[in-house]
Amino acid sequence: MSENARNRLLLALSIVMAAIYLFPLYWMYVTALKSGSEMFATPPSFWPSSAQWSTFAYVWESRNMGRYLWNSTVIAFGAVALIAMLGTGCAYVLARYRNIWVDIGLFLILMFQVLPASLMITPIFVGFSQLGLLEYPRLAVILAITAKSMPFFVVLVRATFMAVPMELEEAALVDGNSRIGAFLNIVLPLARNGILVSAILIFMQAFGEFVYSKSMIQDIQLQPASVGLNSFMGPNTSEWNNIMAYATMYVTPILAIFVLLQRRIVSGLTSGALK
Amino acid sequence: MGIRRTMISIALALASASFAGMGARAEDVKLVLWSLDRDIQPAPNLIKEFNAQKNGIQIEYRQLQFDDVVSEAMRAFSTGKAPDIITIDNPNHAMFASRKAFLDLTDMIRQSKVIKPENYFPGPLKSVTWDEKYYGVPKATNTIALYYNKDLFKAAGLDPEKPPQTWTELVTTAKKLTNPSKNIYGLTFSAKANEEGTFQFLPWAQMGGATYKTINSEGAVKALTVWKQMLDEKLASPDTLTRSQWDATATFNAGNAAMAISGPWEIDRMLKDAKFQWGTALLPVPSEGAQRSSAMGDFNWAIFSSTKHPKEAFKALEFFASKDVTMYKDFGQLPARSDLPVPPTGNPQKDSALATFVEQLKYAQPRGPSPEWPKISKAIQDAIQAALTGQMEPKAALDQADAKIKSIGG
Amino acid sequence: MKRVFSSITDGRGFDLVLVGVPFTFLLALSGLPLLYNILMSFQEVDMFSLGSVIRPFVGFRNYLDLFTQPETVSILKNTIVFVVGSITGQFLVGFALALFFWINFPGASWLRGLFLVSWVMPGLVVGAIWNWILSGDFGVLNFLLQQTGLMSSNIFWRSDPNFSLWAVILANIWLGTSFNMILLATGLSAIPADLYEAAEMDGANAWQRFWTITLPMMRSTIGAIIALGLIFTLQQFDLFAAITDGGPNNSSNVAQYWAWDLSFRQYDFGKGATISVIMTVFVMFAATVYVRSTRHEVRG
Fold it and tell me: Is this prediction's ipTM beyond 0.90?
């Protein structure tokens, strides 16, 4: 088989697989474009008979999506910045040594993540309310997300640091760098890609965070888009086309960035800096 | 800390007293109200009207989701951050009232010119009552009845003006209407494993002479047996077990079920979506002449006992109650009032449906009231689901539920 | 003072600060809530005592009560099936995709990006969409299976006790594949190409290369993925809420959903906490697997 035919076959195969995998996404898009009665038709229609593009403008306006998305962005950036600041150094140290304390540290890091947010929210809420943190709800949510997602970040970034050769750091120390100097000038730049990419993964999770925001942010002006989505997804809803239009506008920009960046993501996680 | 707090509150009290003394218009009293009403439902709109009066009280609104009302309220109450006013689902009312988390409104109601207990339906009133005191005011009420598709009745050779009256008739009618080749089930309802399942089943048990305290009595077993027959013979979709009432009725509107058991909240959507003639009937009874019963749904207003402004909060409730007159017209919900006739809407189909529901409301009974209602309800749901999936016989399932309810002490 | 400062910039103190600050943070924000849950499992808790720590002590009563309930064993069994089923599915599909896209063909990396969709979609929407796909009478899945002739009558994915748990597992595999795939893809691209060249020269076929090079080199990645996957799976909540509600008759109920149901639907916070303590035992297992897997790491 020629190179060309092989490529075409693989491409076709991957497109078929992608089509199957992406069906839920496709269904979201199609539903957003359907009219009210078409949504519930049996058998289901796989293509909207007349696409209702106006739904998007309507939902954007009536739901005040600009504000919601802005709040989501603020929260996600805050959480990512805090996680990167706290988690990077932690991952570095956990990658640098190999002893019982590191084992215990890694063990604890995972144990901290055990409970789902729906069970963590009560103690966190009680604690925050006693500290007065609930007066700054977005900050409170950022702190809670940081605690929840940092272990994930540490595990990923630690793997990145593992790929940075120890000799480089040792050479820098011999050259008269202090530990902090060697870390900032040599190790960190080499792990930059991996950190960036892990941060992006965390960002996307934080962008969709829901349980903490719902309980801690009571002022509608400060709520993120996930809470906005939930507030019109009640049990007795029939505006599925509007909901899916909302979800489409919520997800698509992030998805586009993700698809464009993912090549870097994959090479970034292995910290391809030296290759 | 205690001293500091006292000092601050004294200072604040002095400051506000001196403001009032100076004759200047005091700061507005700020109340916080939580409810699950959306923009087209009463709470946010009534608040807007109330605030527009500028009577020195301003209400701030927060919308919650159905599943979150109680947990958010509890969390807030136990950390001293409860709102002043909340709307609460009627079976959950006793849980708060019995622990004095809600304010006892008995005295204020006695003096009120707007809120008079005798004007309310007995069921809703019972749900706000604990220990013979009033801990809230019914906000609205609803119940369930039978919807049926007249076109499908005709097609099956049934008289569209003679909906089934008894359980036996319901089953035989459903059999005639079920048509798998056309994707039509005879009946749709909800036996979901949440409060909705209990809400739908309890009236059946009550018509059979049971109460939640005697949930394994003969009538309740018979009710569950009929439900089981509906599912076993595929007269209702197997998804009845996991579908909410709203989603279940959607299949009726789409013509995929010939009858539906649901509430008045469906009317507006049905008028829009259902492309056929439909009618309503009272819930079928076990046998001709048997006692009727129905579920009682919807929310109550309540004031948290932690409020700093009980008088102002009650004033707000009085305002809301004064708007009961136009509640149906404005928001499509039925006020819990026996003194207010539901005004004709001009749509005969809608009016006749409303008449059915108002009639059915007379037999509506609250769930509980019991502070342990959520656990009792869970025991009933478990029994329904165990029987309908065929994992237990109806009698055994209800025996188990009964034992559980007795151990809870409800 | 100066010694302390220089230790922080250039000695042991540097490591201690880097690790100490985040661990203090995590202890406060994750460790304490965890302890609060453990404490609650030994107490009688109601809505009024949520805010305080001192509550009536009941010893092991919550645990004993829980294990006398008929549904407990089956729910714990469901949890194991859910976790094992989801992780196996996610891992196999994710690994297969990662290997497939590892072959270099035009468009490969771009198309691979599309498989990351499930990482980005909000849980609420994913739940709602799968709810429709799996619905019995007019679900898209049943429609497609019938159209293609694979099946003659509808399967009630959500409401048949034999299928309900698997319906959620199916949706969860979909959800977790992307995360498995991207991390495995990363692991693959970290394997030095010269290893394969050398093996090829020694005459090893593709299958042998996979077993002797790929898998051993991926050990630490796989350990991390399985540990993280277990945690994500144990935290999965939206899908249960949207698709089956744990029903019918608890046939698709799992520990995390049950804990929520007990705490926030029946307001039995003590029992809810008890289940979450049982869940920590599951995760201890995962954490051990992870820590052990890191022993095989090769330092770059």
Answer: no
**What mean pLDDT do residues A260-274 have?**
59
* Enclosing H/E stretch for B65: none
Q: For domain C60-294, give its CATH number from 1.10.220.30, 1.10.3720.10, 3.30.70.100, 3.40.50.2300.
A: 1.10.3720.10
Q: What's CA B298's distance to the chain center, in Å? A: 3
What residues make up the domain containing A10?
A: 1-52
For chain C, what are the domain ranges? 60-294
Same domain, A140 and A174: yes
Cβ <8 Å between B81 and A134 = yes
Domains of chain B: 18-142+297-364 (3.40.190.10), 145-295+372-408 (3.40.190.10)
pLDDT in tens, A135-188: 999 999 999 999 999 988 998 888 888 878 888 888 988 888 888 888 888 888
**Which of B75, B242, B392, B398 is the mutation pick for testing C, counting most C CBs within 10 A?**
B242
d(CA B29, CA C74): 53
Is some CB atom of chain C closer than 8 A to the CB atom of B389?
yes
**CA-CA distance, B183 to C153, in Å (whole number)?**
12
Asked if C174 and C168 count as a contact pair (C-beta separation under 8 A), the reply is no
Residues A193, A76: one domain?
yes
pLDDT at B19 over 50: no
Token readout for B344 is 């004709």
CB B295 within 8 A of CB B203: yes
In a domain, A259, yes or no: yes
Q: DSSP letter at C28? A: I
Question: Are A235 and B246 in contact (CB < 8 Å)?
Answer: yes
Total domains present in chain A:
2
Cβ atoms < 10 Å from Cβ of B5:
9
Are A156 and C65 in contact by the 8 Å Cβ rule? The answer is no
Task: Specify whether A48 is located in the same domain as A69.
Answer: no
- Across the interface, whether the CB atoms of C182 and A119 are under 8 A apart is answered no
Q: Tell me: do A132 and A248 sit in the same domain.
A: yes
Residue C1, classified by CB atoms within 10 Å of its CB into exposed (0-12), middle (13-18) or buried (19+), is exposed
- Residues of A with Cβ-Cβ distance to B36 under 8 angstroms: 234
CA distance A234 to chain B (A): 6
Instruction: Name chain A contacts of C37, Cβ cutoff 8 Å.
Output: 115, 119, 123
Which of B36, B72, B246 comes nearest A215 by C-beta?
Answer: B72
Over residues C253-292, the pLDDT tens digits come to 999 999 998 888 888 889 999 998 988 887 887 788 778 8
Q: Which chains touch C (3 or more CB pairs under 8 A)?
A: A, B
Q: What is the pLDDT of residue B14?
A: 45
A118 and A209 assigned to the same domain: yes
Residue A58 lies in a domain: no
pLDDT-derived band at C249 (thresholds 50, 70, 90) equals confident
Determine the Cα–Cα distance for residues B255 and B276; give it in Å rounded to an integer.
8
The values of phi and psi at residue B80, to 5°, are 75, 25
| Contacts B–C by Cβ distance under 8 A | 96
* Domain membership flag for residue A57: no
Give the number of other CB atoms < 10 A from CB of residue C145. 15
Q: How many CB atoms lie within 10 A of CB B30?
A: 13
Distance CA B192, CA B246 (A): 11
Is A150 in contact with A233 (CB distance < 8 Å)? Answer: no
Is this model's pTM higher than 0.95 or not?
Answer: no
Residues A78 and A27 in one domain: no
pLDDT digits (tens, 9 = 90+) for A76-110: 999 999 999 999 999 999 988 888 888 899 888 88
Q: Which residue out of B241, B252, B305 would a mutagenesis test of the C interface target, given it has the greatest number of C Cβ atoms within 10 Å? A: B241
Among candidates A119, A125, B72, which has minimal Cα distance to C259? Answer: A119
E strand or H helix at B263, and its extent? Answer: none
